[in-house]
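Hi team,

Below is the intake form for DUF1501 domain-containing protein from Tautonia sociabilis. Please confirm the fields before the structure is written into the shared record.

FORM ID: S-0412
PROTEIN: DUF1501 domain-containing protein
ORGANISM: Tautonia sociabilis
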Amino acid sequence: MRFGHQHPFGVVRREVLQVGFSGFIGLGLSGLLAGRARADGAGSGPRTGGPKRARGVILVFQTGGPSHLETFDPKPEAPAEIRGAFGTIASSVPGIHFAEHLPLLAEQAEKLAVVRTMSHSHNNHLNATHWVLTGHEQPGAFFDKVASRTDYPCYASAMTYLRPREDGLPGGVMLPTYLMEGPLTWPGQHSGFLGPKYDPWQLTQDPNGKDFKVENLRLPEGFSVERLGDRRALAEALASNADSWHARAEAESFSQQRQQAYSMLASGQVGRAFDLAEEPDHLRDRYGRHMFGQSLLLARRLIEAGIPIVQVNLGRVQTWDSHADIFRRLREDLLPPTDRGVSALLDDLEARGLLDEVLVVLAGEFGRTPKLSLLPGQTIVGRDHWPQVFSAAFAGAGVRGGQVIGRSDKSGAYPATKAFSPADLAATVYRALGIDGEAEVIDLFNRPIRLVTGEPIEALYSGEAV
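The structure came back. Fields below:
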């Protein structure tokens, strides 16, 4: 299967369209315009006796796989080669301890439910990322299998497909990075077999950067709606030259995407959400003046603007992949901005009365090996990939905070209690958004495919021991 688009004009038509849209919108990749906004994820009040229907979901993705032992599942009684160099810190909830470099999140423990027995069987970044970000194993998975149109859709794409809306908003936004390294494009970021018109928007700018300006997302200065109409006419004229069935089908898809992009730009509805200068300095400082913090602040603003799913990638690709020098990297580079940014997000959502309406999920694609190791050629220890057990944290939208769900064994190697799969995580996300567990999507061969194969993690809402 091909990945991407083909048309009779080769790269020329694409470049014209990108200059006409993403060139001045500033969202980078062509996947931006494929975000046909059809998901209506606005909240509709609480469900009786269960989780609340979420207004939106913020998925904070720790690309590369964070160590559960250095974050939410420390093992202070284990031998040094398992325990590692970090101590633990008592949280605001008696009996719950986190690793020492998450002090702000420890203070927020009453809002958090930590699942310590997430588990699956793929130790390759790409395969594991697809599973966590779609709820399904990657079809035909092999080592470093890149994204393709045979993949399952990510959460935002499925929402876009199942919940049509016509207000010009995308069904989901991924920011601030696009997970790609060399020839490898990470799966789980796209609509897969649903087709390109359901791809989420990809924002590839650092919201903390000096060049990140709202003008990039509104009509540029001196660029009137009338001129926008002229560009639309040009793009439509180019599309009308498509003379093959496949090219015509793609032209129709682009036409739908263009129409909604024009509507969005003309209204400025989403553009205003990107204007972080509207936020008071003290709040921006609270999140942290770095990519992690400002991306999380932007996620909150996008949820407020009506976008149902925002994925914040904490890093560029494999940022949390700590095969060597793990303790310095976590202590100096990764844990402080994560701790500050996520804790500020939880405080901010609560202050705005949104925490009850927004599900926040913090997870990576897997954890790290329980035993420290030294890679060939390295002089400082790290931890390898470990999908057998890892942690994920949840808050908001009816989640009962102040609890730990599940228990890993004494080494942090395997679940000692019930394990939860990426399919269960997906079922939890979809139910929060009001997607029926029996929902189906149609694949490339016109076959109905069950979107949800796992079970929601009920303990998040009931507080019952597992």
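SUMMARY LINE: The first strand starts at residue 56 and ends at 62.

Thanks, M.
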